[in-house]
Design a protein that fits this description.
- By secondary structure, the chain is of the alpha+beta class.
- The longest helix is centred in the N-terminal third of the chain and has 9 residues.
- The chain has a single domain, classed as OB fold (Dihydrolipoamide Acetyltransferase, E2P) (Beta Barrel).
- Strands 2, 3, 4, 7, 8, 9, 10 and 12 form an 8-stranded antiparallel beta sheet that branches. It has a two-stranded parallel sheet with strand order 1-11. It has a two-stranded antiparallel sheet with strand order 5-6.
- The protein is about 15% helix and about 40% strand.
């Protein structure tokens, strides 16, 4: 019976929501920008990877020269090989995003904390822009969100609830710098 449960454990990613302040401190750069392209290939170890280019509109933390280049393990290669990393954010060409990114030893960046590090920018009917967390943007197959149990401190419960709320884009950078 135990053997039947193991594949389910291996085929999923657990995500524990963190505060914006924690995400801010873990990221080397935070960029608001437009997704220009996605390409697939092999990384230095031969693993399928997706490389995404994002044209910066604003740097909220750190800086990049030129486009923000994000490497993420996982892709479906033309020769049929593939690797699926559950919880990896998907970047759609032409969309505006806010990305919390971590520098890679090999160069360029990766998204911080999987899908927690990507926000999509939306506008309401009045034209006001919001950064919507990827976690709140819909169904994520293979991802289990682990919220704190009811006996957790009120602050921890509030952080978990807030992780799915949209953030008004105007003032978002100042809010992050202030300690969120």
């Amino acid at each position: 019976m135990l053997a039947l449960g193991i594949p389910a454990l291996l085929a999923a990613t657990s995500v524990i929501p963190i505060s914006d302040a924690e995400l801010y401190h873990r990221a080397d750069v935070i960029v608001r920008g437009v997704v220009l392209s996605n390409s697939v290939g092999e990384d230095d170890w031969g693993r399928p990877e997706t490389v995404t280019r994002i044209q910066p509109l604003e740097s909220m933390k750190g800086g990049v020269s030129g486009d923000l280049v994000i490497h993420q393990v996982g892709a479906h290669l033309p020769d049929g090989r593939f690797f699926k990393l559950w919880g990896r954010p998907e970047y759609e060409i032409g969309t505006e995003v806010v990305v919390f990114a971590i520098a890679r030893p090999e160069g360029d960046f990766q998204t911080a904390e999987l899908l927690l590090g990507k926000f999509q920018v939306w506008q309401d009917a009045s034209g006001k822009s919001f950064a919507m967390p990827e976690l709140a943007s819909g169904n994520h197959p293979g991802v289990t969100v682990r919220y704190p149990d009811p006996s957790a401190r009120a602050e921890t419960r509030e952080r978990a609830r807030y992780s799915a709320a949209p953030r008004e884009l105007r003032g978002f950078a100042s809010y992050l710098r202030s300690g969120a």
